[in-house]
Design brief:
The chain is of the alpha/beta class. It has helices at residues 70-81, 102-113, 126-133, 192-210, 215-222, 234-237, 240-244, 257-271, and strands spanning 25-30, 34-39, 46-49, 62-63, 66-67, 92-97, 120-125, 142-147, 152-158, 161-168, 225-227, 249-250, 282-284.
Length: 285
């Protein structure tokens, strides 16, 4: 985590958006199937397919939590957000990242968003953004289950920072293609929604088995937060209560929770530069 140098004067508190005309900001959630963005001064969230069109052929530049086509991602962002940014000034940008994306993901993402000419890029784990959107108590351990189109993540947050995480390359976009192979196993015999449910249960169980503290168990007892488009599917989420023996809690509008949480962090950072020092985030100049 990089903080502002001590000898740098702290800027005065800005007026809230949309009344502040001095600067602009972007909250961005790059998903494998959908890209969601909030820009300063706007009340609605931009929610579009994560697709670019080189040579008039549709390409998905982000696949299962990995940016596989960085120039294509840049072209997509320029097409979607470029016309929505003011001609003068450089935006403050906050970007959600997969819990297990690591330095490689952040490096590719930073290269991709340079097309938007950001003055500062702040990355935050998607699970933390979900927790912020849900007004969750970050002072206690928290489990966040994010069921996306092509990636499902289970993340343990402690004091708002990621302390454990698991992911599987499986999501709601795979439901139509999940057919049993010739060699049937117990998992393969389940219905496609049940396979996602069981994958979540397996990840939580692995975290419990490897946690030598009580944090995962405490977080589970309070109930995991459910986010992502999969949280809207009762055939995936309803069985989780019984399988996890815990009260699961779908967040409001779970498919946009990550970008809404990122937008809240963005507004806080805009209001005062010291708010850039959020746990679990990376600050880049």
């Amino acid at each position: 985590m990089t903080t502002m140098p001590k000898d740098r004067p702290v800027a005065a508190r800005h007026r809230s958006w949309p009344w502040c005309r001095r600067c602009s900001g972007i909250a961005l959630d790059l998903g494998s199937a959908r890209t969601r963005a909030w820009t300063s001064g706007r009340r609605t969230i931009l929610d579009v397919p994560t697709i670019t069109f080189p040579d008039e052929v549709a390409i998905c530049p982000v696949q299962r939590g990995t940016i596989v086509d960085t120039p294509g991602t840049s072209r997509m962002l320029d097409r979607l957000l470029g016309p929505r940014l003011p001609r003068r000034g450089r935006p403050l940008l906050i970007l959600t990242t997969p819990a297990l994306g690591g330095l490689a993901y952040r490096a590719e993402a930073r290269t991709a968003v340079e097309v938007l000419r950001p003055r500062t890029v702040l990355t935050v784990p998607a699970a933390r953004a979900v927790a912020v959107a849900a007004d969750a108590d970050l002072a206690r351990p928290l489990l966040v289950v994010d069921i996306g189109a092509h990636l499902t993540e289970v993340t343990l947050l402690t004091d708002g920072a990621v302390t454990d995480a698991r992911s599987t390359a499986l999501g709601t976009g795979d439901l139509d293609s999940l057919t049993p192979p010739a060699r049937i196993t117990e998992l393969d015999s389940l219905t496609p929604p049940a396979r996602i449910t069981e994958a979540v249960v397996a990840m939580v169980s692995a975290m419990l088995d490897q946690d030598r503290t009580s944090q995962t168990r405490d977080a589970l007892r309070h109930g995991p937060l459910l986010a992502g488009g999969g949280a809207l599917r009762a055939d995936i989420t309803r069985p989780l209560d019984g399988r996890l023996q815990a009260p699961v809690q779908p967040v409001l509008a779970p498919h946009t929770a990550a970008v809404r949480g990122a937008a809240r962090l963005l507004r806080a950072a805009h209001a005062h530069p010291s708010a850039l020092a959020v746990p679990g985030a990376a600050h880049h100049h």
